[in-house]
Design goal:
2 copies of one chain form a homodimer. By secondary structure, chain A is an alpha+beta fold. Chain A has a 4-stranded mixed β-sheet with strand order 7-4-10-9. Chain A has 2 domains: about 35 residues; about 140 residues, Nucleoside Triphosphate Pyrophosphohydrolase. The interface between A and B is large, with 73 and 73 residues. Chains A, B: InterPro entries: NUDIX_hydrolase-like_dom_sf, NUDIX_hydrolase_CS, NUDIX_hydrolase_dom. Chains A, B: Its cofactor is Mg(2+). Chains A, B: This is NUDIX hydrolase. Chains A, B: Keywords: Hydrolase. Chains A, B: GO terms for molecular function: hydrolase activity.
Chain lengths: ~180, ~180
């Protein structure tokens, strides 16, 4: 998988923040010329497709500063240092929804923006979910509102752009297929 | 859609590059406390689900420096200044695949990484594609290899992580549904 490899000539750190790091790499292109690549390093994330007993999907509405609007997403969150993604997934499910499960299943992983970022998101399926007696705490800068919706309602939310992000758009089509078969 | 709005107290430009810009916004959180948001501004992108007459999908393999590997994706590219997304979509289809179409259809748009970036990707469907007599030029730092695959082959490529990005993962499940109905 090293086809068209771009070898790093030098890598310059432009910004190191709380969550993301920005590098500009000077690279040797496959044609022997030089180029520059702006790269965001991100710790990676998880997202959880959580289904209730009556086959509704749990979604969370939150404000996304980058978009300057609130959108509705499947529960998700960043991986903490040295945390295994399945632990992050269970933690985020508990923190954001107040539910937990003993049967978390891995679905697949994908890069969100391979053109400029190394962020990978790992998707999980949570079925047989049960309400926690005491809801886990959210991060101190996190404000979310929960909703339980049918697949049909989710379709409407995509049409009116309330659902407006890649992982949740993926989740809708993945679920449509999954619920047909299960 | 302004629920949990985070008002900007001040916005600091940390990096302005060729493609991305990095800002750190100090914000007023809904609980009255202050927080910081690291934000990447990106011009936005398009991606095209292109289907051949024999119901194969056109994919492109390219090296992604951010991931330090090559992956297989649906044709995609950045929106140029003042370019309408459907123009970008047709241009990228022509440049990356050597095909064109008179029936480009808009599917939907989504944010790729709403936690830290404003990048929106607009998805289009290209059917009834015809080969250009002369292939359009790629960008000078762009190297891609074309492939035509069946949905079944694409499924295998997801399993072995050759297909490894959000828009292409979405495209697979969207297509699975679409091809059943058409």
């Amino acid at each position: 998988m090293k086809k068209f490899e771009e070898k790093t000539i030098q890598s310059e750190l432009k910004y190191k923040g709380r969550i993301i790091t920005l590098l500009v790499d000077e690279v040797l292109l496959p044609n022997g010329k030089k180029g520059n690549r702006e790269i965001i390093k991100h710790p990676g994330a998880v997202a959880v497709i959580a289904i209730t007993e009556d086959r509704k999907i749990i979604l969370v509405e939150q404000y996304r500063k980058a978009l300057e609007r609130s959108i509705v997403e499947i529960p998700a969150g960043k991986i903490e240092p040295n945390e295994r993604p399945e632990i992050t997934a269970l933690r985020e499910l508990e923190e954001e929804t107040g539910y937990t499960t003993e049967t978390l299943q891995y679905i697949q992983s994908f890069a969100t923006s391979p053109g400029f970022a190394d962020e990978i998101i790992h998707l999980y399926l949570a079925e047989n979910i049960v309400k926690l007696e005491e809801k886990a705490d959210l991060d101190e800068d996190e404000f979310v509102e929960l909703m339980h919706v049918t697949l049909q309602e989710m379709d409407t939310m995509i049409t009116n752009k309330e659902v407006y992000d890649a992982k949740t758009a993926f989740a809708y089509h993945w679920l449509k297929d999954y619920l047909k078969q299960n």
